[in-house]
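Can anyone check this?
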Amino acid sequence: MSYSDFTLKKVKTEFNLTIVERPTFLEEIEPITPSDFLSTFLEKHLPLALAVNTEKARSEWLISPVLLEIKDTLSNEISLFSGTDFTVDSSVGLNGVCDFLISKSTEQLFIEAPAVVIVEAKREDLNAGLGQCIASMIAAQKFNQQNQTPIPTIYGTVTTGDRWKFLKLEDTIVTIGLLEYNIPPVNQLLGMLTSFVS
């Protein structure tokens, strides 16, 4: 088993989770004005990513530029990983590749704790990615504990690149924000992701 084998029901049962559904769990978050580069890039390439409509195109042309903007905004005080193996405990299925992972470490050659944000890319159905994202979040929680850097909240997002849905894991409670956030505009999204890491 791996992260991609988990449905929402399966991850809840396997890890004895409590699922809380809310319209949103995000408080008022200060939006961040995107750089001219990101604004121009999204304006130019959003239609292309949506037309090609593969998970790879959406990841490369929508998700990656947004996450790189977060890294720049935080003056490279975080590390960002894409398509990296994140095997934490294969005995319970916490193994496989994370689409994107953000760590509060500047180490870029390998994943170093604490892992704080998991980003799961999907081509269309956001809800279908919830189980996989939560399993990766549990792995991040366990990874941080194993490395003596536990943090109270792990954040996750399932995204098509233009639509984003957010989750948070605190102990064994998973809060799922039911509202989807769309880009454009990207200001609110940048504010949310930056607040998760900060």
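Reply from J.R.: I decoded it. The chain is about 35% helix and 25% strand.
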